[in-house]
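We append the chain.
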Amino acid sequence: MRMSTWIRQHLAALRALLVLTAITGIVYPVAVFVVAQIPGLHVRADGSLITVDGKVVGSSLIGQSFTDKDGNALVQYFQSRPSAAGDGYDPMSSGASNLGPESIVDTLDADPAKVRRSLLTTVCARSKAIGGREGVDGSRSFCTKDGVGAALSVIGPRDADGEVSHPVQVVSVNQACPATPFLSTYQGVRVQCAKPGEDYSIGRIIPIRGDASTDTPVPTDAVTGSGSGLDPHISPAYAAIQVARIAKARNISEDQVHALIDAHTDGRTLGFLGEPRVNVVELNLDLDRRYPFRG
């Protein structure tokens, strides 16, 4: 009797396994595939691929880097936002840098391969480079004029609140010697440059705002990557500061470039979610189609 019950239970389990396998492994995938072939959904289901002259050149859902082999921006193209996915926009290595707002101190070393830039310095360097490329002011709060994070290690005895009451040494932790520190003195103590390989974590790390305007023309998306590292969009503000360069490189008017930006700008999803955005991949392809680069 017990053996009979055992057999019935296992047969029931086997039937359930076969039925669920058929439903979830065959019926459901086939149903999804059939629905995906409906006109209007087919392109999206296949990855929103973009073709030019019958050749797949990308996807409207995945960004691309428009740089040369050395990583320098190609002047004739709108530039995408930074990407931490592999070497940049690698769909097999989707991800972010994982650096947070407290990442303000660089790891300096005599060996350039061992240098690790903080998020603050990374943002400062990118903003300075973009400002120079686009002819706008790339300075930012908490950044030095040479494009690194403006942070000090203030070393000395501390009070009950953890504040350094009487500094005995102050180091600009992101400016490697022999650089000239962005401040000459702090609370009456001469500011020193940082010696590569030295650990200044014993001091209180203090970011210094500086006198740069908080209303910088270089927007946030220009200097930070997306969470996936694959976002093909930039803000209209980032597109706008690139217009003059694009117009000059392609020998067209700025109004023509603005018109293309408007054509490839999507509004907020459902009218209230997210922010307006410009698809860089589609915009650059349209640029090549309408106004080929003659350089």
Remarks:
- The CA atoms of residues 18 and 228 lie 38 Å apart.
- The beta strands are 49-52, 55-59, 151-155, 169-176, 185-186, 189-194, 204-207, 233-234, 265-266, 277-279.
- The chain has a mean pLDDT of 90.
